[in-house]
Design a protein that fits this description.
mainly alpha, 225 residues
């Protein structure tokens, strides 16, 4: 079967690939931290530091996903491709938040409280939904069945929705309109690429059990889409 959504859905530990991915991501985050907390005199140092902290949080969640929740095979091509994308938006967000293009102060305010809230809410939705599914899959009675409980009863891809919310908050925190390219790209990627491919795979794997679930459940945004 072709890899749905551009990834291999077959089971495999892929420890060397996952370790490589986590290490590359750690180096990217370390550079973000250095840029935000290091000797460079940025116009918006506090904003840069908040954005860098978001990168550190994202790395922690990424490691949990890689080594606990993710059971499928991970190829080096996926590691390198996603590492390049992560480097682009994490370093880009820090530099934009720091004011590298504007060179003018952008004091923290009300919108930034909303931004941090969205980052935390998105992280919560993604990680909690993955944890709920992971716990359920450990049950012997769950084998061969599609998970439709927990947060997944509100959207078939509630974990993707969490990521979209997270990136919206992260982009908002940079105070730069250029950063909005990332949540737009990520969300459109979910809607037009990842979700259709994954739905096809899940339908083939679980049959009418998934089809019935998908027919009465939102795809991405609970109660809306």
């Amino acid at each position: 079967m072709a890899a749905p959504g551009g990834v291999n859905r077959n089971y495999g530990r892929s420890i060397p690939q996952k370790l490589t991915f986590a290490l590359i991501h750690a180096c990217i985050v370390a550079l973000c931290i250095w840029l935000a907390f290091g000797p460079v005199d940025w116009p918006n140092p506090m904003r840069a530091r908040l954005v860098a902290i978001c990168a550190a949080l994202y790395w922690i969640r990424h490691c949990v996903t890689l080594f606990i929740f993710l059971k499928r095979k991970v190829a080096y091509s996926e590691v390198l491709g996603l590492s390049g994308f992560i480097a682009t938006f994490e370093l880009g967000f820090v530099l934009l938040g720091a004011g590298i293009l504007t060179h003018h102060p952008a004091p923290l305010g009300g919108p930034d409280i909303l931004a941090v809230a969205l980052v935390l809410i998105g992280s919560y939705l993604n990680s909690l939904s993955e944890h709920q599914r992971w716990q359920w899959k450990k049950l012997a009675s769950s084998r061969g069945h599609c998970y439709t409980k927990g947060l997944f009863k509100y959207a078939t891809h509630i974990n993707y929705f969490g990521d979209s919310v997270l990136f919206i908050g992260w982009a908002l925190l940079t105070a730069s309109f250029l950063a909005w390219a990332i949540p737009t790209f990520v969300t459109l990627g979910f809607v037009f690429f990842h979700i259709p491919a994954l739905d096809k795979y899940l339908s083939q794997r679980y049959g009418t059990e998934f089809d019935d679930y998908a027919a009465k459940t939102a795809k991405l945004i609970p109660f809306i889409y």
